[in-house]
């Protein structure tokens, strides 16, 4: 990497328990057991206040898992392919994911992957909250085969749902996209937390009481009850994939 070309600076902001913005140029490599030939950055974890762990992974040729990711009992997991081609296994099922491909593995199943060429992906895991009489199951697809629908009756903001809405699932993944000038219909304040990776474009994001610039390859995390909302700016579609906890009551 060598010496910096300018005075050290960053757009990164981390307010534990509230929110975080982590730009691409601040990511560092972490050695993670059972993941080989990959550059792995942990961008969200309980250490900052998140109820999940999320990773940005750059796989070199031959990058792979040697044991399923998220295969521990009661842990559910998710993988999203940003770039490249991945061979993926969940249990006895095998899949090939290209850019935009995703897969969810129910608690304890885990996700194994390998890459023959350079690839970039997101990994996500959290503890599953069971519900009597309901169960989650393996789901795979590609976002390019899912049509956008208008978000809250607005013609310049769109959403895609990646996972089923059934009560067996205690989480979902969505892609939210804004045309330049598009925005949330109101400032949201809710119990759910989000982990969000910017897939394209630029935006201005309100977190708590501060408007912050966001762009492609940034990661964002918002904790529960943090006021948040966004505008799409620039010339391209401002789009991000984000997690959401759902379908469960608050545990006392």
From TrEMBL:
<dbReference type="InterPro" id="IPR044704">
    <property type="entry name" value="UGlyAH_cupin_N"/>
</dbReference>
<dbReference type="GO" id="GO:0071522">
    <property type="term" value="F:ureidoglycine aminohydrolase activity"/>
</dbReference>
<keyword id="KW-0378">Hydrolase</keyword>
<dbReference type="InterPro" id="IPR013096">
    <property type="entry name" value="Cupin_2"/>
</dbReference>
<feature type="domain" description="Cupin type-2">
    <location>
        <begin position="56"/>
        <end position="113"/>
    </location>
</feature>
<dbReference type="InterPro" id="IPR011051">
    <property type="entry name" value="RmlC_Cupin_sf"/>
</dbReference>
<dbReference type="Pfam" id="PF07883">
    <property type="entry name" value="Cupin_2"/>
</dbReference>
<dbReference type="InterPro" id="IPR014710">
    <property type="entry name" value="RmlC-like_jellyroll"/>
</dbReference>
<dbReference type="InterPro" id="IPR017627">
    <property type="entry name" value="UGHY"/>
</dbReference>
<protein>
    <submittedName>
        <fullName>(S)-ureidoglycine aminohydrolase</fullName>
    </submittedName>
</protein>
<dbReference type="InterPro" id="IPR044697">
    <property type="entry name" value="UGlyAH_cupin_C"/>
</dbReference>
